[in-house]
Amino acid sequence: MSAVPTTTPVPAAPRQWRDGELAVLLLLPIALINAIGFILPVLNLARYSFNKSRVGGGIEAVFTWENWAGLLSDPFYLELVFNSVWISLAITLTTLVVSYPIALYLHRASGAWRTFLTVLVISPLLTSAVVRTYGWIAILVDDGPVVGAIKALGLPAPSLMFNIKGVFIGLTEILMPYMILALMAGFGRLDPRVEEAARTLGATPSRTFMKVILPLTLPGIALGCLLCFVLAVSSFITPKLMGGGRVFLLATEIYDQAIVTLNWPLASTLSILVLIVFGAALWAYSAVLRRLD
Amino acid sequence: MMEIHKTSWPMRILVFLLFVYLLAPVILVFPLSFSGDQVLRFPPSFWSTRWYSALFANSQMLQAFWTSLSLAAIVTALSIVIAVPAAWVMTRLTFAGRDLLFNLFTAPLLLPTIVLGLAILIVFASFGLLATMHGLVFAHLVVTLPYALRVLAVSLSTQDRACEEAARTLGAKPLTVFFRVTVPMLTPGIVAAAALCFLVSFDEVVITLFLTGPRISTLPVELYNYVYNQADPLVAAASALLILLTLAVIMIVERAMGLGKAFVK
C-alpha cells in the first residue's frame, strides 16, 4: 500500500485538485500498462498480418496481402477454420445440455446447500486447465477406467485419447462452470410462482418446461453459449495435450506457427481470423437478443 | 408450498451424475497421486507416496513453484496498488469518457489468451523482455488488472457513501477520508480482488507459455511441458497440492465476503 500516497494528492496542497487532473494522475499506471501491454501489441499484431515473414522469425516490413491470400486459398487452413468453428459449436451445445439441469437445480436450491454446490461449481474454474486436462487424460487413456468399464460390458472400446473425442469430452467439462454461472445469472427472471401457475392451470411438466421455463431462460442460454463458444474457439491447452498432435484447431496452429515454425506474420493472421470469428459470434449473440426482446 | 417444487428423483440422479462428470478430473488426481505405479493407471495397482518424494526431489519443479509463487505475490500486490486508485476514480469521479475508459481497461479479458500471448510475445521480443521476471510481471498485470478493477469497482459502487460524507463534513481531508474510511470499508473487496489476482497469475499458462524459456519458467508451464512429454503420476501429486492451495485461497475469500457474491454478482 505504500505506493498509493505517491499517486494521491498531497493533503497539504493549498489548491483544490480538479477532478480531471486527479483522474489523470490516478489512472496513469493502469493506462500505461493497458497501452503497452494491450493496445500496442494488438495493433502490432494487425500490422504483422500484412508483413512478409523471413525464415527464422524475422519479418520484412513491407505491406503485403500474401498471408491473407495464402490463408484463404489453402485448403488446409480453410478446413482448419471450418473444423474449429464446427467443433466449438458442437462443444457449446453439449455444454449447454449438460449444464442446464445443474443450473436449474442450483437456482431452486437454497441456503447452505446452494452455497456448497455453488462452490463445487466454481472450484474447477479456479483449478488450472493443465490439472483438469491431466485428470481427463488419466480417465480416458486406453487402459483407463472408462475404456475398462466399456470393455467389461463386452462392448468394443473406442480409443478416446489423442483424437477429437477426448478433446470433446474434456473441453465440455472444462467449459461447464462458465455455462452454469451464465445460466444462473440469466435465471433471475425465473419466478417459481410462474411455474406454479402453469402447473396449477393443468400444464404437464414437459409443457411447463417448453412453454414457460425455457423461454424465460433464453437470455441466459444465449449468454452462456456466446461465452463457451468464444472460449472453445480459443482453447489451447486441452486440444494440445489431449489431441497428441493429431487434432488441428485454430488455437493450436497459432501456437505452432509462433513457437515452432517461427512464422509470426502467419500466426498473426490466424489470430486476427480468430478475432473475426469472435466478432461474428458477438454479432449473432446481439441478433438473438434483439429477437428475444 | 406445492409438491411440484420438490425436485423429482430422476432429476436428482441426473444432477448428481452431471456433478460427477464436472468434478471427476479434479477429484481423481487425489487417489492417483498416491499411486505406486510407474505409469499413469487408474485404479493404481498399489499405493505409495513415491510420487510426492519424486516431486520434492525434482529441482526444476521446485524452482518453477518458487518462481510462480513470487510472481503471483508481486503481481497481486501491484494489481491492488494500481487498481484501488483507478477503481476509486471510476466510481467516485464523473468525467467525459469514463465508461469508455472502464471498458478499455477491462478489454484485455475479452481477448483470447492465445491471441494476447502472441501479441505480447512479438512486442516483448523487440523490448528484450522475453524470459525475464519483469516481463512476466508486466504480462500478468495486463490480465489481472481488469479482474481487480472490476471487483473493486463493484465493491466501491455498492459501498455506503454516508460514512465518507460524514467524515468529510466533520472536517477530514480527502486523503484521510480515503485511508481511514474508504479503504477499511473496502477490505472485503480488496481481499477478493487479491485472491482472484493471485489465482489468475498463479494459474496463468497460455500467455506465460509464449514468454518463458529455459532460463525462467512457472509451475503451470512446467506441468504443461511435463504432461506434453510424459504422463506419469508425478503431475497428479503436483495437481493435488495445487488444488489444496486453491481451496485455501477460496476459503479466505469465502471468509472475507462470500464466494457467491464475489463471482456470481
Automatic annotation (TrEMBL), chain A:
Its main location: membrane. It is a multi-pass membrane protein. Keywords: Cell membrane, Membrane, Transmembrane, Transmembrane helix, Transport. It holds the Pfam family BPD_transp_1. PANTHER family: ABC TRANSPORTER PERMEASE PROTEIN, INNER MEMBRANE ABC TRANSPORTER PERMEASE PROTEIN YDCU-RELATED-RELATED. SUPFAM superfamilies: MetI-like. The lineage of its organism: Bacteria, Pseudomonadati, Pseudomonadota, Alphaproteobacteria, Hyphomicrobiales. InterPro entries: MetI-like, MetI-like_sf. It is found in: Cell membrane. Gene3D superfamilies: MetI-like (1.10.3720.10). This is ABC transporter permease. The chain crosses the membrane at residues 22-43, 85-106, 118-141, 161-187, 208-237, 270-289. Residues 81-285 form the ABC transmembrane type-1 domain. Belongs to the binding-protein-dependent transport system permease family. CysTW subfamily.
